[in-house]
Amino acid sequence: MPASRPRLAIIWFTIFIDLLGFGIVIPILPFYSARFGAHGMGYGALIGAFSLMQFVSTALLGRLSDRVGRRPILLATMLLNAAGYLLFAFAPSFVLLLVARLVSGFAGGNISAAQAYVADITTAEDRSKGMGVIGMAFGLGFIFGPGIGGLAARLGGHTAPGLVAVALSIANFASAYFILPESLRVEHRAARDIWPFGHMADALAHPELRPLMLVWAIAPFAFAAYTVALPLWATATLGWHEQDLGNFFVLVGIVAAAVQGGLFRVLTRFVSDRRLLITGMLGMAISIGVVPFLAHSAALYAWTVVLAFSNSIMAPSATGLVSTFAAANEQGTVLGVAQSLGALGRFSGPFAIGVVYDRASPMAAFLVAGGAMLLGWAASLGVPKPGRPDGQADAQP
């Protein structure tokens, strides 16, 4: 593995830049879109469009990299990322701002090619360590991105965060161009089906997997809806600006990194994955529904810690339970279905809650998002205990 370290470092940097760029623009996005007269629905469209394109490109680019190799896919998406952020910085209209988010979302789908690159250059024994590198890049990118974005906007105006993301993407391309060789041998390349969506119906028909698949669809829907309503509400009610919103997302990232970086492993020694899943879903539902009743930023930050903690114990528990109930020869397929359902939830949630926020009220938006998460909690109660012969869930949570 030592010979692979420079290449792993570039892959780490690639994913880090993807998440850093995403985090950089998040704190200014609601304010930027408001300059063009966009409100809840328009802001939700910007968030949902990014997730939709990432959903499309993750499947497309991963399978395309099996055909043409990893290097051309990674290099092309790095340049595409730079172009998307450049358009974001100087977008003269809401339509072009939306196009910029579509471009960046498509480029962000290079995670599948990056994961394939890691699998190519690591041995079976070291592969989990290599994938752990990608997970660390995710966490750090989301921690530092919002803080950088909020600070850049305060010091350099609304164009500065996009230009910072452009510079980082170009630096990523330059380093990858000179250091990153092709990892997939020609004899290992193969043409694959681009859209294997038939597996979704199979997973939803599986009696043990069905409640988990519902959780995977509902939780991202509700959480993404919350991330649309929260900035709009905090700006109007608490007087938040870019830096305040950046601090909010940094707090979410820090809690997530602390829990998934070590605390979760400690918890699993005493609490089952199923109970952690159920607890996490209920904690998120309450944390979202309580927001419109808060009067101070300090209270919002306190409930944000609860929300981030709940999400951080829910997500790995859901992943572990999927792998438990899936057969040994369908692990990758079922986990892929779960990720696809999650992406669809992240796409549809912002659109739906944007409409509710505009046409009903901010309170209704949070109550709808919290209610959706509560439905996910109800679905989690149907997850059977692993190892039960009858495959039936307990009556009590």
Brief account:
The chain contains 15 helices and no strands. With 397 residues, it is mainly α.
What topology emerges from the helices and strands here?
Blueprint: H1 5-25, H2 29-34, H3 40-68, H4 70-90, H5 94-107, H6 111-121, H7 127-156, H8 160-179, H9 198-205, H10 210-238, H11 242-267, H12 273-289, H13 297-325, H14 331-359, H15 362-380
Account of the 3D structure:
This protein has helices spanning 5-25, 29-34, 40-68, 70-90, 94-107, 111-121, 127-156, 160-179, 198-205, 210-238, 242-267, 273-289, 297-325, 331-359, 362-380. By secondary structure, it is mainly alpha-helical. Residues 388-397 have low confidence and may be disordered.
Low-confidence stretches: 388-397
The residue fraction in helices comes out at over 70%
Question: What structural class is derived from the secondary structure elements?
Answer: mainly alpha
The number of helical runs is 15
Instruction: List how many beta strands DSSP finds.
Output: 0
Main beta sheet, described? none
SSE pattern: HHHHHHHHHHHHHHH
The residue-averaged pLDDT reads: 81
* β-sheet strand percentage: under 5%
Tell the overall outline.
globular
Distance between the termini: 44 Å
Radius of gyration: 21 Å
Label this structure with key terms.
single chain, 397 residues, mainly alpha, 0% strand
